Amino acid sequence: MADTTLQDTLRVHSFASTEPGPRLVVLGGVHGNETCGTVGIERTIAELDSGALTLLRGELTLVPTANPLARRLLQREGERNLNRSFRPSEAPPDYEARITNLLCPLLDRHDVLLDLHSFQSAGEAFAMIGPRDNAGALEPFARATEEGRLALHIGTPRVVEGWLDIYAASLAQRAGGTPADDAALAFGWGTNEYMRSRGGYGVTLECGQHTDPAAPVVAHAAIHSALRLLGMVAGEAVAPPQPALLRLVSVTDRLDEEDQFVREWATFDAVAQGEPIGVRADGRMLHAERDGFIVFPNTEAGAGTEWFYFAVASDRAL
Known about the structure:
The protein has helices at residues 36-50, 68-73, 95-108, 144-154, 163-174, 182-186, 191-197, 215-229; strands at 13-16, 23-27, 59-63, 112-119, 126-128, 158-161, 201-209, 244-254, 260-261, 270-271, 276-279, 285-287, 292-295, 305-313. By secondary structure, the protein is an alpha/beta fold.
């Protein structure tokens, strides 16, 4: 278990205009080794403090480092992944659960969430959105149009959908086809799933590779784009061309630390059906299930954790 003897403080910056308007919350550093969101948020705070940026209406809350313990350790997690099991608990069993209990009421007070992340492999920035409008049991939702507009205006070349669907399918596959119960599905909840469950909407922005010097620039620009789209600051919100939209269809776990990729993959590398992707420790080869794209290939994944995702072209338009 990680050392939590040092006191950690969740730093929250709130700005409120006298004119009513949308309520936006921006999170950085949900994972401690993802620093681009923190840098982008700190730059925005400095602009607001200096008067270089003026909030014209609504409320803006900025959390530069959502997981102080993980940041202090400079690793993805403190005691566990903060972006899983993200909902309040009466008796929080670990550090991330205690932080979740602080963040959930914060999200409750807002309409819109922008969660800033980065990833381990090489690859371009992209946005992640939730389901289309639906009344199903897994993730009912009625604000897909607004969420899609936010993802579109952020301006990444790709947008990805389908996280909770493939998480539920993965659980069922591991259980031999038995649908997962609510407790198991709750582990798949992150910040955006929680935000949607509270009547809001949210976009996760993956700003690029962890150490890419352009990633903090992407994060900072996205905050400005969201503020302009919501009419919270001056400036016209101009939508870029329609991005390529992909749908996650599967996730593959690393079963053994000897499992290896056949080559160094980058996020959004295209593969053809049957193309080899990786080889298991026992020599079994993993092939692409169909034409598609590798997402989040993680050479540092531990045994029993997500090794890579697989996506295909989506028919959805934002």
